[in-house]
Every structure is written in structure tokens, then in C-alpha cells.
Amino acid sequence: MVARGEFLEYARVFGKHSYGSPKKWLEESRKRGLDLVLEIDVQGAAQVKEKLPESVAIFILPPSRQALEHRLRNRGQDSDEEIARRLAKARDEIATYDKYYDFCVVNEDMEVAGREVQAIVTALRCSTAQRRARVEKLLASFGGKD
Fold this sequence. Notes:
Blueprint: E1 7-13, E2 17-22, H1 23-32, H2 42-51, E3 58-61, H3 65-75, H4 80-95, H5 97-100, E4 103-106, H6 110-125, H7 128-140
Parallel strand pairs: 3-4
Antiparallel strand pairs: 1-2
Helix pairs in contact: 3-4
């Protein structure tokens, strides 16, 4: 799929796993008038922003380094060495937050973070760019200028 250019974004993460978002997901959501939400890493966000500068990126952040380490350890999937590598990478990625992301949400409480993401999406849907056709239809209903 990579060789055929079928991914909107893709990356090899921590030298182990390859991830990607097929372009067809974007095409299908556009045809249906739906929002497309991608759960991607910083590499993916950079690729999407390059290809679709109008896209909106939300950076979900841990409340602290200690909280991130605790979450990684509780998953029970990684060695101490892997956790150290992930924490170092996280620091580098967080340092570039304003390069690729339009919004930041700190996930200290999942319910609060979820509401913040919903608020961002709601605000975006109400933007003048999104509502242009509706506003023009409303304006037309008033008739000509005086």
C-alpha cells in the first residue's frame, strides 16, 4: 500500500510496528459529509498537515512525565529500556507541540479531556468556513440590499 501511495500517512514506530491511515478513509468520509478522526502519532500528524494544511490536529498530552511513565508501566507491555525510550521520545514530541497541532488537551481526567475534544469539534463545525453555505442561504432569505 505504501508503494502504491494508498496511505494518507504512515510510520514505523519504535522500529517495530508499522501503522498507517488509508486515503480511502478520507475519501469515504468526504463523500458522506462526515468528520474523519485519526488517532495518529506525531510523525503521522506532520504528514497529514503537510498534505492537508486545512486539517485540524489535537495533541492529547499526559498531565506529567510521571503520569505517562505510570500509564506505560501499568500496561505491562514494555521493558524498562523500552519505557525509557518512549519517555525520551515523548519529551521530544511534546517539545514540537506547536509545529503540527492546532489544539492541546491534557488528559488528566478522561471525562474532562473527552469534553474538551467535543468542544473543539463543535467549535470547528460552527466556524464561518463550515457554515458559509448555510449563512449565505439565510442571507438570501432576507432579499436584496437596501
